[in-house]
Amino acid sequence: MAPYESDHATGTGPDEDPRTGRRKAARYVVPVAVVGVAAATIGLVPALAASGDPDLPKITAQQLVEKIAKSDVQRMSGTVKVSTDLGLPDLGSLQSGMGSGHDGDGSSADPRTKLTELASGTHTLRVAADSPEKQKVSLLERDAEYSLIHNDKNVWGYDSASNEVFHTTAQHTGDRREHRPSATPDDFAEEALKSVDSTTSVTVDGTARIAGRDAYQLVIKPKQSGSTVRDVTIGVDAKTGLPLKFTLTPKSGGAPVLDAGFTKVSFAAPPASTFDFRPPKGAKVTEEKPGKDGRREHAPDFGEQFAPGGLSGADTIGEGWTTIARFDTGAKGDKTSGSEQGGAMGGFLGSLGDQVSGDFGKGTVFSTRLVNALITDDGKVYAGAVTKDALVKAADADK
User: Fold this and answer.
1) Does residue 302 contact residue 187 with C-beta atoms inside 8 Å?
2) DSSP per residue over 171-238, as a string?
């Protein structure tokens, strides 16, 4: 089947809330965690939607991807459940011991550190938006709540547990995502639709009811062997084209590595008061000025933790789903297996991985349910959403 072609989507009426903007052309990126690996690609298979409940008009995968690309919902509110299971130990106590602020001296309300909690476990978010200038995301905890609010020029972070406030200013760029954390199905889907070619098949696999809405199921699968990804499923709202659910399942089976979905959603405009914020009495307020270009990364993109490109300075080996990031730490002789130079920390890290050897020499492979990383004894790192054998093979070929 030919690659993506620019036909027009068919089968649905006007969006509930028409939007003037249009996203960039749909592209697909292999979702990965911990490290960024280069873009994977897809050849769109125009499979028709299977019968199911609800009974929706048939649509091809190409048309459904285009529908997502055209979707531009700016007014909405809802509740999102996010579950992440990389097979890693609970790092909650470690995070607490490291302190709540950024670089050890910041605010517990700084979103760059607070929202890293989403990288493991199950969490509930409340989200709301009413234009590119008004957005709010709240992380609901057992006895507290963390909120990140973007209202016009102001960006506020508030941690009720510590009664700390983080404040900075925002530029008006027209990008509705720039000033809020990315942790909704829409965000993950956008990261998953960034590059297109023949290493992936995409089909429409029936319909579903998600958060009370009729939705199509878009299923993305790697064609290449050696990937640790079995498939990605995106539940797409039939009327607006907004992704309502995103599920990434590893080839090893079991629970999804990432499952993010709306449990409630409304496309009515939220009350204006939703985006109002004033620091509570007695709160500690930390002010941060924008960088030289007027911008800063005050809204961490959780979605990009599951996408390539997050590792600055890395070279790549291979293509598509089997792309491997390669870089040199420069720490030659600091063996992860526990040499005298590596010390106690080296021995501890080595005990967590599998010792391997090949033409490249010796090293240790650290594994999650999605991403594997090979750290060689001469300080090189090979990582990606690929099998351990694929990493060793890449290191041998790179010698």
Assistant:
1) yes
2) ---S-TTTTS---SHHHHHHHTSS--STTEEEEEEEEEEETTEEEEEEEEEE-STTBSEEEEEEEEET
Residue-wise pLDDT for 151-196, tens only, equals: 999 999 999 999 999 999 876 544 444 444 456 788 778 777 664 4
pLDDT at residue 190 in the model = 76
Tell which residue, 180, 184, 364, has the closest CA to residue 263. 184
State how far the Cα of 313 lies from the Cα of 325, in Å rounded to an integer: 10
> pLDDT per residue over 293-317, tens digit each?
444 444 444 444 454 334 445 688 9
Residue at 391: amino acid letter:
L
What residues form DSSP beta bridges with 12? none
Q: Give, for 318, the enclosing helix (H) or strand (E).
A: none
User: Taking Cα atoms as reference points, which of 146, 150, 170 lies closest to residue 158?
Assistant: 146
CB 261 within 8 A of CB 211: yes
Q: What would the mean pLDDT of 48-64 be, rounded to a whole number? A: 76
Q: What is the DSSP string of 59-120?
A: --HHHHHHHHHH----EEEEEEEEEE--SPPP-HHHHHHT-SSGGGSS-TT-HHHHGGGGGS
3-state secondary structure of 388: helix
The residues spanned by each domain of the chain are 43-306, 329-397
Buried b (16+ CB within 10 A) or exposed e, 158-169: bbbeebbbbbbb
Q: 212 in the Ramachandran plot: left (φ > 0), alpha (ψ -120 to 50) or beta?
A: left
Identify the helix (H) or strand (E) that includes residue 129.
strand 121-130
- CA-based nearest residue to 10, from 73, 75, 56, 74: 56
Q: Is the pTM of this model over 0.70?
A: yes
Phi, psi of 221, deg, nearest 5: -130, 140
Q: How many CB atoms lie within 10 A of CB 98?
A: 11
pLDDT of 290 > 50? The answer is yes
**Burial track 184-204 (b if 16+ CB lie within 10 A, e otherwise):** bbbbbbbbbbbbbbebbbbbb
Contact assessment for residue 301 and residue 181, using Cβ atoms and an 8 Å cutoff: yes
Give residue-wise pLDDT tens across range 318-330: 888 889 999 888 7
Query: Average pLDDT in the 361-375 region?
Result: 93
Phi, psi at 381, each rounded to 5°: -125, 135
Domain 43-306 top-level CATH class: mainly beta
